[in-house]
Amino acid sequence: MRLRFLKKNLLIILGVSFIIATVMITTRVFISDEVTGVVAQENMLPDDKATFHYSSVPELIKSIYNANYKQYVQNANTYPGETKLVLVIQVHNRPDYLKILIKSLENAAEVHNLLLIFSHDYFSEEINYIVQGITFCKVLQIYFPYSTQLYPSEFPGQDSRDCPRDISKDDALKTGCLNAEHPDSYGHYRDASITQTKHHWWWKLHFVWERVQALQGYSGFVVFLEEDNFILPDLYHLFKEMVKYRKSSCPDCDMLALGNYNGLAEFDKLSNKVQTAGWMSTKHNIGMGISREVYYKLMGCNNDFCSYDDYNWDWTLQHLSGTCISKPLKVLVAQGSRVLHTGNCGLHQNKEACRPELALKKAQVSLKLAKASLFPQSLALTNADSVEHKAHMKNGGWGDIRDHVLCNNYAKRL
């Protein structure tokens, strides 16, 4: 009996590996430059911009891989100086919120020192047009190649042969749906629209640190934002002050948090205040600064990240902090937030409920009240919380072995 069970599981794993391999082969992940005859990168023109074709899924996939290979940096000739800070923005399909973020970036002080990297998992002419209209700093667009948009009827999208989310495992096994053996911790089957965000975040982390040519030799922090963020004009100034403070007074601080979810209440009192704490998902995932050293720590936990049954990348990260990463991650936090969350609709809300114009008005009012307290000359520590592992109840949504295998392969194929 035990032998038959082991044989069955082995066949399942082999089958999943075959599926993942097929996906990667069709998207050219395994194809070497020698086979494809791709021209060496050093022979490419600096303005060799990839052309996008949206007429069909195969054409779109080809465009995405071409763009990720060429890595055209727009405005590079206009701003030839050294990049002082990299902002990576994860973008889905909320163009009105993206416009708000870009406008706030345009109004930021010393923005010409920044490199903006937009990481997309939804591909449209409208969104590309918005990003390509940026003229105030260097910009690079990268594209998540395993988007559900590119696989509308097969994994990693939603296959019609997949088990319905709420079917019982017994019934799933009877029907023979593809992933019957792998519900999550709460008995639910995968929803591709839910799993995509964690996939995109982990792929983006690998791609930025390992593949982005513009970051070769870059030793600073990368700050992660999302399309429904709004930054204050002194974000870069505060970043420099936090880096200086970390160097002199908190060398064991692993990460930075330039934002929080408290809005700008009492900003005049908190503008120059920082605190230290153990990294927590609900507090420190906005305006998060990661160094290459922390990236390597996370790389060492690749399997743990990819197999942990929580569809949220940030809750998964909190789980790793103090388990796989033996010493919990310590974060230096700006108490006066320089990143506001404008999104009044998200993953679990109906898009029709989105009101970006109200979000923008609220951010503008808050900024007007905070304006006099921007650009502090120095920082002061107000609190040092204990740094310890904070256990939580995992949220599920990440039980499918196909997600685990694909997620693990982002690192293996770099």
Task: Give short descriptive properties of this protein.
disordered N terminus, alpha/beta, 15 helices, 10-stranded mixed beta sheet, 414 residues
Topology (elements, then pairings):
Layout: H1 2-26, H2 33-36, H3 57-70, E1 73-74, E2 85-91, H4 95-106, E3 114-120, H5 125-132, E4 138-143, H6 169-175, H7 192-210, E5 222-226, E6 229-231, H8 235-249, E7 255-257, H9 267-270, E8 273-278, H10 281-284, E9 288-290, H11 292-299, H12 302-307, H13 313-320, E10 330-334, E11 339-341, H14 356-370, E12 380-384, H15 401-412
Parallel strand pairs: 2-3, 2-5, 3-4, 7-10, 8-12
Antiparallel strand pairs: 1-4, 5-9, 6-11, 7-9, 8-10
Helix pairs in contact: 1-15, 4-5, 7-15
Descriptive account of the structure:
- The protein has 414 residues and is of the alpha/beta class.
- It has 15 helices and twelve strands.
- The protein has helices at 2-26, 33-36, 57-70, 95-106, 125-132, 169-175, 192-210, 235-249, 267-270, 281-284, 292-299, 302-307, 313-320, 356-370, 401-412, and strands at 73-74, 85-91, 114-120, 138-143, 222-226, 229-231, 255-257, 273-278, 288-290, 330-334, 339-341, 380-384.
- Strands 1-4-3-2-5-9-7-10-8-12 form a ten-stranded mixed sheet, with helices on both faces.
- The longest helix is centred in the N-terminal third of the chain and has 25 residues, at 2-26.
- The model is unreliable at 1-8 and 25-47 (pLDDT under 50).
